[in-house]
Please model this.
Amino acid sequence: MQRLKISFFVLALVALSAFKSDKPAYRLFLKDGKAVKFNKMVDALQEADIVFFGELHNNPIGHWLQLELTKELYATIDTNLILGGEMFETDNQLLIDEYFNKDIKQSNFEKEVRLWPNYKTDYKPLLEFAKDSSLKFIATNIPRRYAALVNSEGFEGLDSLSAQAKNYIAKLPIKYDSTLSAYKSILEMMKDSPHVNENLPKAQAAKDATMAEFILKNWSLGKLFLHYNGSYHSDDFQSIVWYLLQANPDLKILTISSVEQKEVEELEEDYLNKADFILAIPESMTKTY
Model:
């Protein structure tokens, strides 16, 4: 018995030593800081109506995991999966649909859509997977010209838009809760900038409200909508999540947040309760731009 105890102790030390010498590219945690395996997260996400994968836009691990998660969900729920993302603006939906239907060439699509600089490395794999798998990909973000309008004139600036233009934004008037930390923190972080005014968080809210509305327009009971966005658009269960729950409090929403830490063996206290699942990535990870 004594030998058995000693052997177990030695094995434990070896395992701990191996763990410490390992260099994991990421670790997943629950909101309470407990570690969780990728497949367990996938199982939980399948039960949701809407899933937000909050990313760090220039982090390659997050983008890789987005694609892997998408493939895993598709393997289980097939065409009950709907994809969508912040990086495509609502007035570009026609171009996405035409490309998916093979009405236009890839070269024409990529020339005419307002693509983010890291599209080819980070978002094209998601879009192409949707196309090849006969999945819908929904452009959800407000056209940037209208977000700029809110930034300069407030929500009132949207009132003068044409009826056609209003088809691309959230229904007016847009609800706005200035007490949400997601919006208060924007002004706090940018308080020393001479170009920032109280409309900046309103422009952010216009994005959140529009994304929420276009997600809801394209989701139906029995489907799972997987949405890709910057973590700040879904962190702390605010922003897009807040707008969705204002419209439908019965929605089952699960969120993933991406964070960077010096070490990823444990989740740092500042990131607890930021999302249902937290993807911790070493801060030394290379960037896509």
About this structure: The two ends are 57 Å apart (CA to CA). Residues 234 and 240 are 6 Å apart (CA to CA).
